[in-house]
From TrEMBL, chains A, B, C, D, E, F:
The protein's name in its UniProt record: 2,4-dihydroxyhept-2-ene-1,7-dioic acid aldolase
Species for this entry: Prosthecodimorpha staleyi
Gene Ontology MF terms in the entry: aldehyde-lyase activity; metal ion binding
GO cellular component: cytoplasm
Similarity-based family: Belongs to the HpcH/HpaI aldolase family.
Keyword Metal-binding in record: yes
InterPro entries assigned to the protein according to its UniProt record, in alphabetical order: Aldolase/citrate-lyase_domain, HpcH-HpaI_aldolase, Pyrv/PenolPyrv_kinase-like_dom, Pyrv_kinase-like_dom_sf
Length: 257, 257, 257, 257, 257, 257
């Protein structure tokens, strides 16, 4: 398993730069994990992962000593539980717009009495090395992170109430969707200036609640700015971009002819 | 991508005969696409596709210049969004029985302000060749088709209201289920005479609302009849049938001994 | 298909010991099926199966003459229908806590007039050998088993009402989750003494309603005890355990040095 | 396993019409098998199968009660042994041009003292149901068919000597390559008139040696002609053709507009 | 298929920068193809491709309008034929050290009378759109490139004779192995100074014979230098490097803290 | 990577009990690895692995800290090199009957000057963590084990000469094939009494040459006996057996009714 768990890193106040993977091949995720990210997210919402590919990639990335996060499809909270059973250390749920959404998400992520997660972490225990069910049970609720995506006006309106839901450990800002919803479908631009205020507001409220602030970015410069602002888990681009950028740099010296 | 988009063909008033694929191998879908269909549907409800196989088959069929439709499982509207992100040009949602069903489907299919589709068409943009997010955003709502299945008495009762939902582009008649529900489970026969009236009724209402009428058939003769009637997207059989029929014809000359 | 169907065995009052498979490789399921189980369950909740792997494993296990059950993810009733379309003889739905849950499950499992299952059993009919749709339709509702998991206090409270839902054929006790929910998250132990009473209670109520009582166990001894008590379908361990136990026995003679 | 083994059918003097499958999805092979062929060939030379897909398709086709043949890549005799270990009843080796080729092929197909096949039929015995290694060993050499492809002038010249190799059970004529090699690369046409003589010659020699004559065709009419001539295993087309033909027939009634 | 074939580009005297892919996921190859390379190589020698993954990636990359080359495992000339059947436009054979190696390679690559390639390009013809076998046959020998790797002292000694083999279209220099073999296992460094002379020598001889000179490099600067020297097909790095480089650039702005 | 390399364990004179895996799912191999074996073999000869499954399983088993061995198909020495590139620590080559066989095997396993292994261990270096090519090169020949199977009379006759081949690190006795070949096809029984003498003879000669003696067994008792005799790497059964035995033990208490 990961040399240092995600929750430990976050609790230590360190910033986690997060690799983002849409390709379902586990070796892609592992190669990215070995490139220097503090954690890797496997994307089932806009990315191309399915349950089996997620399971295999969790194994591969964990083997590289890097914690895995899984973003599940909209409203697929059953998959949130499954991701944990497969060994993910955190789950990102998109479009958590209401307290009901947050409650359903928390229920899937946490064992009783906090939530309603169902028992069966056979694969996860293989990866953690927990010898007994009791050991895993005792640690699980405290060591798995539930990150609710805030990416609509409705979610902004409900932000405090969502953060107050027991079992929600943090929020994850989706800037593209936030730009799209706040502009009523006119603009999609995660770096748009009109996002600055909500991005700061969400951060402040989340910090005040003592929960983990996280966000998506598409460049290292933006990622660094978000870290300086106070965000603690910061996604930086995605695999298609890494490939494209790597190819571009590789081909650059061949072009000036 | 497809040489001509599905929406262009439909807007031009042309009839689209639709190949239907349950097998999850992308080469099966591609071979069928190259056989002369105007579009190909990948079936996740009664067929054997899952998200990864759908993604791969969309690539293969698009490479053949043929548009792809995806039928998602009952109520799996998150998958409707994912299919679009993967490059599908249309989605068929089964069992849209109420306005609430239709609204949830439209929300998944359309970006704001029409719906609540979330942003992330990385793979689709690779296939369309859209250079900018803005370009894709501008076209997306108008060029992706949401087809709601009308296949129960409840749906018939709510037909006009379903068609009035903003973001629903057409209906797709499911004759087998319609026969099953109208007969209260006594009969399953998509060619049953008692379907003639509802099939005409649905067509008329859909045309009156200016939306796209589509239907499933299991033979070329029936498909042609539906085209003559006025349906514009008409599924003709399915892959297991193509294989079976092809084998039968091939073996015919060997049998008379 | 299976030499003897699951429903026939159960109706004959025989006990079915159930192999349990989390690994998505169809050959694992088939090898386990050939080991002597009366049926095999493919687990999509805590196990690692997805739709395509389930489809393939149903084929492999059926080829071994053994009936297949599929446990779907929490609340994924669309998958219940799909499992039947793929040739499963029974489906286990986890966390059926209310009458509404049970009704939704039954709707997905049974054709009208009992439920709302949608028509499309192409693959299943290939396995059963049914020549006509009418033949399959006539048998389907009576020969496919819907097993609702009872594994929370809420479900216990609603037990009779859940069993009264038309289309629910039996219950499946989840002892681990029952221990977890009854202890409010303090204990996870499917063999805990405090489960004895609920396990007997559920059995009695289920028998009184004339429905099928089923349960999960992790050892042959426990499985036998449940059979003696009156349970008719009894899961015994799971594939990771079979492998581990097999390896342990194999290595035993090499250890005493 | 198959209801009747391939060798039994052939020994009984019956004609076996052979389905031909290049697609690696096991369900494609199974669907074709259920369409009425006496056996199915999985093609690893010009088709798209690899070892794992062959293994899975052998399971699927065997489940349909149909015997499986595997055509291996040119010179890949190790794969011939593997195909038998996976449960194939026959292997076709392409481009067997010399006695040395035939000897190497026979060595891979037959256990000592006839050949040098290595022991390890774990999967095959699962399919045959052989309870003991001794039982499988006793039957194996007699019940697995090695079919050497005759498809070059060199092979024609060596025909008798190839047939005399102990462990070669029959020949399989490759008309396309035969046309290509006999015309020195000018023509590829498996139905060319100049093939009539060699096709009759090969048949006569093979029959005289008491071995099995087999051939590839691309139409039912040609297949029937070959059967009437005396060939006993006759391939009829291939999966891409079945699909294309099935689609063509399905779409025919829609075209005349 | 590719908008412009590889052979056309090479004949036009243009330089082809070649992407190199070890990952078996077709989407990785396609994404790289879309990044600006003139062709993409799928590596089965040191990379992780197998026949099925090669077939799928050829489809994906061709869909992007980019020609595909396949490097086969050492001595696996049967796979060279298969790669062409799957739609590859060129094949690289590693460790072609003798005239016999070259002859065997050419035999697999070219139809008679030049070689002994066996007939069966079903998949390739689907991609090229050739309507008739005759059409494909006429073009095939002239439009598929056989590139023999020169990467040992023995190969250097036999260089002229290898180039004289009919059916060998070009050579592909393997600098790493060349450094390893020339240094007798002391050094592995494809950029080593002692390679300059052999790299120039191979180029000169190849040009003199009118055949295509190709080479592997691991950086754009080196690739450009090789182009300036006169090499026409030049591999630039490989997918693991593109990913690693892309990630490094992406993370760079986050590091200086 | 593995906590302790295979070569270190063997050099320390410790006995390595070897798990044996035919199933291509990486999770099967990993679960077996975690069960207590000192190493795991992935079988491509009689087992069902192919190159991609081997690559994935090497990753999974290495993640469990257990070294991986790969048995390649007969004569497939190109795959021996590939297995090392994928991170295997040892390769077993079946049917090494002559010095020529042994030389070809050693050539594929060792870099110059010992052999002719070609450079390209991208994946292996990801697993070993070697930072530079030079570092991997320096260690590779000494830390990868080539095990030649001795399983025919011919191999017995050539035993000393095979062991004298530079680059052959040890032998691996195949008792089933040895029984089959020594009995001229009459008997297949790896525990047959007439094998005792050759098994002792091979051990003595191998020890005298200072190389590693290894052997296959199908039971823990036999494995222990071979260890006591002096064999150092001892395969114990195979995955199908582990599953079957685990199931048998699990079902035992349910049977006595
Ligand atoms: Mg979003
Ligand atoms: Mg329907
Ligand atoms: Mg449970
Ligand atoms: Mg041929
Ligand atoms: Mg090389
Ligand atoms: Mg052996």
């Amino acid at each position: 398993m990961a040399s240092k768990s995600l929750i430990e890193t976050v609790r230590a106040g360190e910033t986690v730069y997060l690799g983002w993977v849409g390709n379902p091949d586990p070796l892609v995720a592992e190669t990215i994990a070995r490139g220097g990210f503090g954690a890797v997210n496997l994307d089932m919402q806009h990315g191309l992962h399915d349950p089996v590919s997620v399971m295999r990639a969790i194994g591969s990335v964990s083997a590289a000593g890097v914690p895995v996060i899984v973003r599940v499809p909209v409203g697929d909270f059953a998959m949130a539980s499954r991701a944990l059973d497969m060994g993910a250390q955190a789950v990102i749920a998109p479009m958590v717009n209401t307290v009901a959404d947050a409650r359903a998400f928390a229920d899937a992520m946490k064992y009783p009495p906090i939530g309603k997660r169902s028992w069966g972490p056979t694969r996860a225990m293989m990866l953690t090395g927990d010898a007994s069910a009791a050991a895993y049970l005792q640690r699980a609720n405290g060591e798995t992170l539930s990150l609710a995506m805030i990416e609509t006006r409705e979610a902004l309106d409900n932000l405090e109430a969502i953060l107050d839901v027991d079992g929600i450990d943090g929020i994850f800002v989706g800037p593209s969707d936030l730009s799209l919803t706040l502009s009523n479908g006119q603009v999609v631009d995660g770096d748009a200036a009109f996002l600055d205020e909500p991005i700061r507001h969400i951060l402040k409220v989340t910090q005040a609640k003592g929960k983990v602030p996280a966000i998506f970015t598409v460049s290292g410069v933006r990622a660094r700015a978000m870290a300086d602002l106070g965000y603690r888990i910061i996604a930086v681009g995605l695999d298609a971009l890494y490939l494209r950028e790597g190819v571009r740099r590789m081909l650059e010296p061949t072009l000036d002819r």
